[in-house]
Each structure stands twice: as structure tokens, then as C-alpha cells.
Write a structure and sequence with these properties.
Elements: E1 7-11, E2 16-22, E3 28-30, E4 39-41, E5 43-48, E6 51-54, H1 56-64, E7 69-71, E8 84-86, E9 89-91, H2 93-112, E10 118-123, H3 129-141, E11 145-151, H4 152-161, E12 168-176, E13 181-189, E14 192-201, H5 206-225, H6 233-249, E15 255-262, E16 265-272, H7 273-279, H8 281-298, E17 307-311, H9 318-328, H10 341-354, H11 359-367, E18 408-410, E19 417-422, E20 428-434, E21 442-449, E22 458-464, E23 474-481, E24 492-499, E25 505-511, E26 516-522, H12 530-542, E27 544-545
Parallel strand pairs: 1-10, 6-27, 10-11, 12-17, 14-18
Antiparallel strand pairs: 1-2, 2-3, 2-4, 5-6, 5-7, 8-9, 12-13, 13-14, 15-16, 19-20, 19-22, 21-24, 22-23, 24-25, 25-26
């Protein structure tokens, strides 16, 4: 494979980001940043109008220059009206994320010795269309050709499951990052990895545990001195950092102490692990509820799950591992680095989906040309799916396998895609053409009709989300079929949705009598037009990012 054929797998995280690639022998490798670390804090510090620093150095400025530091930007992805201003310039979440990605791109180029221009970027499984669009735009603004967007739990399962090909296993991925929480059940059957069910919360993550601890300490200080360190930005950031370190310490120690200095008053607030777990019990219950919801969607029980994978740094908290042990009676899989597995899985997915000519894949095919292939089961109808009860017979790949085996990855639509229609009483309602958990790619069609007499045009509105009314879902695009002869009410219309693995939706609207068709691509990955993208890309390219 030529140097420029490498594709980065990027885990763009709320608190930390990581990147990886697959070498010519098929080994997924984490690429360290310029500072030599496997992960980079997703923190940006602006120190001039067109100059900023990303990573550890930016973290150091959180307390010193809090007003010019941005963190947790992932939580604002997909919000069109959100922006932050630094030195007179306004930045969208896409642009701020692009700055982080530019840092990763530059570091990868330095580490490998050549430009790396293509990437597969991960997102939480429950990110909606706008959030996925913003992530893909951020990659483009950073100078990447974003080949695809892949769900974080899917990537983690790929990283873990590669050595278990040839077995029948059900895997649950519990991904608790800094700002988001996802649970996904996947199965391995032969050389296929398939998403069975997924759910999550894009507004639940390790930061919520941090905030609970911070509020407890601040409230304790306020009761003692009548002053609240949360009222001033700099003391607030200083206290946040101390609470963050205390939370990490409580994962390995039974007790931590948190010093507070504010307006000439000093206090030391002790916190035990038990107290911390009590403060955050409801957050853990939200995680537990989501796990049970996913099992219900998958039509499985806890006993049906063979392996549990913990991804995201927040899964290091003992309470998360204890919850899993209590519910399943099992420990999480060992040997999985929660900070790196998503990036490694994204790198592998990049090869499987976009580099069929990779030398490791070719070596495997050559070495196993005469070997009978493992049986693969393709499930096209999710309603006919029956889980493997307690795991099937294991027949691991032979130890003399050379290269990287080809793997089929089947992801699903994590949000339903529908259409706004009028019922017999001309009241709006939503009809879902692509239900949640539909395997991708897929085609779905529906037969509808003109709602009024003498219509010469019809507008089809594409929706995303659960609900029966317009205000319960999000309209993400529309297709207009016009220049028609007047049609009486009831004349049939056919609507076809084609949804690709890259989460691009093609919509065909056809007037059945004339066969006149209008096709539109609802690009769920593109939220800004080409002119805006060009301007923002040039702006980020000019910036001094270190």
C-alpha cells in the first residue's frame, strides 16, 4: 500500500481524542500525538486572533485563562445557533472540532512522515443526523476526506472481535465517555459483525459525574463560609480540575480530599468513594436503564451476552463495573483499553470498508485460498432474528493465519426516518419508512396519494426521530415534485427511501400515473454549503495550531 493510502481512524471524543491506523501487516496501531501521548485532550486555548494550542498545553490554561479555553464542544455538535467568540472571532462547534482534528492530522503527518488526508471518524451511536453532519463537516474543515462516519460502539466491537472471528458470540459494548453514553449489542457470526440493537444518551457522560462532585464540594464550602466558588470563572475552573482529579483518584482509592481556596478562605473537603457513589446513584441508574432497554430491543437476556466491552474512560469508575457484575454476573472483557479501542476499531473499519486492496487483506486471501470459508449468516429481517442463547460453539481462526481477514460490518439506523402525511381527516401524522435498528444499507418504499384535488406539485418532508406528530420529530429535508398536470385527490404517489452505510439518504418521489420522478439526496452528513465550507476550511488552514 502506498503511503498516501493510509486512512486514519479517529475517535473524536468529548474529553479526549485518539487516532489509529492499520499497518501493512494488518496490525491496528495507535498513533501518538506530537507530545508522545496516545490520547489528546479535546481542549483548545486561543491566545491570539488566529493562534491557538490544542491538548495538554490548553488544559494547563483552563485555570489561568478560562475565558479563552473551550472544552466539551462535542456536546454542542449539531446545534446550529451555538457559537463561541475568541479575540473578536466567532466559532461554530464544527470549526472548534476541526481545530482539534487539524492538530491530530498534523501530528499524524509528523509521526508517519507523509500527509494523511483520509479518515473515518466515530460518533456516539445515538447521534442524530445534525450531530453526524456536524462531525463530518468538522473533518472536512480540518482538511480530511471523510470516507465514512462509524458508530463508536461498533468500532470498539470491531477492535475486540477481530480475534474472535469464526465464533458465534453476542457482545455488549458499554461506552461511557466524557459527554455521551451508548450501549450497543452486536453479534459475531463467522466473518460478520452485526449491530443488533443500540440506545444511548448524548447528554450523559463523565462530565455529569464531575459536576455532581463539584457541586457537593462547592455547597459544602458555601455552608461553611457563605461564599460560592462557582460564581467566578477562574475559581470555578480551578475547583473543577481538582474535582476531576479526585474523581479519577476515587477509582483506585477509597477516599480523596479536595482543597478549596476562595476569597481568602480555605477548606479541605473529604469525599469517600461511597459518598461519591451516593451522589451519582441516579446517573448510574440511567446507565442501567439504558442497558436493559437495549437488551429488550435485542430480545435478549443478560445471560445471552457472552462478552462485555467497556469503552470510554469513565467506565474505569468501579461503580460502573460493579453495576455490570451485578446485572450479568460477569466481568468485562480484559485486555481492552477503553481509551484506544474506538480509534483502533475505526482504523480497522476503514480498511474493511474502503481499502480492499490493503496488502494484509491480500496476504490473507492468498494464504487461505484453498481453505474452506467460515459460515456467514446474513440477517436481512431484524424481526426474524433469534439471539444465540449463551453463545454458540467456538471455532477460532487457525493460529497460522497470515494477514488480515475480510470482515463484513453491518450497522443499523439508530433513529427512524419517516415522512409527514395527512390522514383521512387531513391531520398531519408521521409514517416511518425506515424503522429504528434497520440494517444498512436498505431500501424502503411507501404508496401514498395526493391529499387535495387539482394538485400540480407535491412536497415530501423527510423526518427523523420517534413520534407521531411533527413537533415530536425533526424535519431533516424535503423533496418537491412539480410541473405535473392537475391531479385529483387520491392519485397515487410512490416514495422510496434508500439509506446507505455512509448515512446518506436518497429519496425518490414518483407520480405513479405519469412515472414522473424527482430524486434528491438528503445528505445527512452535510450541514453547511460548499461556500461556507470553503471559507471555514481556509480560515482554519491559515490559523496557527500547535
Amino acid at each position: 500500500m502506498a503511503d498516501d493510502g493510509i486512512i486514519l481512524g479517529i475517535d473524536l471524543g468529548t474529553t479526549f481524542s485518539a487516532m489509529g491506523y492499520v499497518d501493512r501487516h494488518g496490525k491496528p496501531c495507535v498513533l501518538p500525538n506530537a507530545e508522545g501521548h496516545p490520547t489528546t485532550p479535546s481542549v483548545v486555548h486561543f491566545y491570539d486572533r488566529e493562534a491557538c494550542v490544542v491538548g495538554e498545553e490548553a488544559v494547563k490554561m483552563v485555570v489561568v485563562d478560562a475565558s479563552n479555553v473551550v472544552r466539551f464542544v462535542k456536546r454542542y455538535m449539531g446545534e446550529p445557533d451555538f457559537s463561541l467568540e475568541f479575540f473578536g472571532k466567532s466559532y461554530t462547534p464544527q470549526e472548534l472540532s476541526a481545530i482539534i482534528l487539524r492538530k491530530l492530522k498534523d501530528d499524524a503527518t509528523e509521526a508517519l512522515g507523509f500527509d494523511v488526508n483520509e479518515a473515518v471518524i466515530t460518533v456516539p451511536a445515538y447521534f442524530n443526523a445534525a450531530q453526524r453532519a456536524a462531525t463530518a463537516d468538522a473533518g472536512a474543515l480540518a482538511g480530511f476526506n471523510v470516507l465514512s462516519i462509524i458508530n463508536e460502539p461498533t468500532a470498539a466491537a470491531i477492535s475486540y472481535g477481530l480475534e474472535r472471528l469464526g465464533t458465534d458470540r453476542n457482545i455488549m459494548v458499554i461506552d461511557l465517555g466524557g459527554g455521551t453514553f451508548d450501549v450497543t449489542v452486536m453479534d459475531i457470526r463467522g466473518a460478520s459483525l452485526r449491530t443488533v440493537a443500540s440506545d444511548g444518551n448524548a447528554e450523559l457522560g463523565g462530565k455529569d459525574w464531575d459536576d455532581r462532585l463539584l457541586n457537593y464540594v462547592a455547597d459544602t464550602f458555601q455552608k461553611q463560609f457563605g461564599l460560592d466558588p462557582r460564581d467566578d470563572p477562574q475559581p470555578y475552573q480551578e475547583l473543577y480540575e481538582r474535582c476531576l482529579h479526585a474523581k479519577i483518584s476515587l477509582s483506585t482509592k477509597p477516599r480523596a480530599v479536595i482543597p478549596v481556596n476562595y476569597r481568602g478562605h480555605r477548606a479541605v473537603v473529604p469525599v469517600t468513594r461511597e459518598e461519591f457513589e451516593g451522589l451519582t446513584r441516579d446517573l448510574l441508574l440511567q446507565c442501567e436503564d439504558t442497558c436493559n432497554i437495549v437488551l429488550e430491543k435485542a430480545r435478549m437476556r443478560w445471560v445471552d451476552i457472552d462478552d462485555f466491552i467497556l469503552a470510554g474512560g469513565s467506565t474505569r469508575m468501579p461503580m460502573v463495573q460493579a453495576m455490570l457484575r451485578r446485572l450479568s454476573g460477569k466481568d468485562a472483557a480484559s485486555g481492552v483499553n477503553p481509551d484506544e479501542c474506538v480509534a483502533l476499531g475505526a482504523a480497522l473499519a476503514a480498511v474493511f470498508r474502503h481499502r480492499p486492496e490493503h496488502p494484509a487483506l491480500q496476504a490473507y486471501r492468498t494464504a487461505n485460498a484453498g481453505r474452506k470459508a467460515s459460515a456467514d449468516v446474513e440477517i436481512s429481517d431484524p424481526d426474524s432474528y433469534t439471539p444465540v442463547q449463551g453463545g454458540g460453539p467456538e471455532s477460532p481462526p487457525p493460529s497460522n493465519v497470515v494477514g488480515l481477514p475480510g470482515v463484513r460490518i453491518t450497522d443499523v439506523a439508530t433513529h427512524p426516518l419517516g415522512i409527514v402525511v395527512l390522514d383521512a381527516n387531513l391531520k398531519e401524522r408521521i409514517v416511518n419508512l425506515i424503522p429504528e435498528m434497520t440494517p444498512l444499507p436498505c431500501d424502503r418504499r411507501g404508496r401514498f396519494a395526493y391529499a387535495y384535488d387539482n394538485m400540480t406539485a407535491v412536497r415530501v418532508e423527510v423526518t427523523e426521530g420517534h413520534g407521531e406528530a411533527r413537533d415530536e420529530v425533526t424535519v431533516i429535508g424535503e423533496v418537491v415534485l412539480d410541473n405535473l398536470p392537475p391531479r385529483p385527490r387520491g392519485t397515487p404517489i410512490e416514495v422510496v427511501y434508500r439509506y446507505t452505510v455512509n448515512q446518506i439518504l436518497e429519496v425518490d418521489v414518483t407520480d405513479v400515473e405519469s412515472r414522473h420522478t424527482r430524486r434528491a439526496r438528503i445528505n445527512l452528513r452535510g450541514s453547511i454549503d460548499e461556500r461556507q465550507k470553503k471559507e471555514a476550511r481556509e480560515r482554519i488552514a491559515r490559523a496557527s495550531i500547535t
